[in-house]
Write a structure and sequence with these properties.
Structural class: alpha/beta
Shape: globular
Oligomer: single chain
Radius of gyration: 19 Å
Strand content: 15-25%
Helix content: 25-40%
Distance between the termini: 36 Å
Bound molecules: adenosine monophosphate
Largest sheet: 6 strands, parallel
Amino acid sequence: MASGPRVCRTIAEFRAACDEGRAGGGRLGFVPTMGALHTGHLELVKAARRYADRVAVSIFVNPTQFGPNEDFGKYPRNLERDVELLRTVGADLVLSPSADEMYPAGEKTRVRVAELSQHLCGPFRPGHFEGVATVVTKLFAIAGPCTAVFGRKDYQQLKIIERLARDLLLPVRVVGHPTVRDADGLALSSRNAYLSSEERGRALAIPRALRAAGLLFRAGERGVRALIDPVRAALTEAGLAPDYAELADADELFPLGVDAQVGDRALIAVAAFCGTTRLIDNLVLGEDALPEVS
Ligand code: AMP
């Protein structure tokens, strides 16, 4: 049986362990997470292994990316279970730092990626992407990974991290991994644990609507209104409360006007409340495989 990953509770210990791995010429892969791990996270670890000799995972519920009325307090935390899951996919190192160490007293620095952070989820979660960009920059500085793997489930986050790595000249390759879904099509998320079974059934309207839009696109539809209106209607019909359902530029994330035509590639992104749980999902038309739904 594979032995479990080494769990570091301090930045110094983790940094030394990462340095040790690289000193022998080993490539380090890195997967930042907030814990409450599921198969989606484990697939990222397996993907990181393909680029690296050792794989490190951070587990940190980052306070600065939560708004005052969001779920920071109730976000699920279970380090022991997470470490056991990481053992099954052969992760080598885990960083589980304290918030006090990640944000030393008197800290004043934030990383902001302009424009990309202002679209889609930006207006609904003020400060969220600044919190994400800041913590990921810190984690990159601590781990010094050659490759870091992020999920396309959080597509806006992925684009922001790609951009910050490029703009700050960070020596890390940022890799996006396809969204991992349950058998019924729902994108895996730590927040799915909040859903009642009735809500979970209704949440399936999201992957179904994305699939339907993907099929329309495949059949040749290029009108923004014709592609997005049925998505919005399907969400509302299922009793979900969308923050937004948008067609957007797949690289710069700005919304496409309803009277526009999409090109070869476009992002459909959705954020919707199912009860009190906020779910997000997306599909890059012309690029992603369509969700398989039940
Ligand atoms: P989180 O712990 O939710 O912050 O996510 C940590 C990483 O896992 C991020 O890069 C997410 O995009 C990724 N991730 C979360 N859910 C999925 C999923 N269903 N499929 C692929 N990647 C995911």
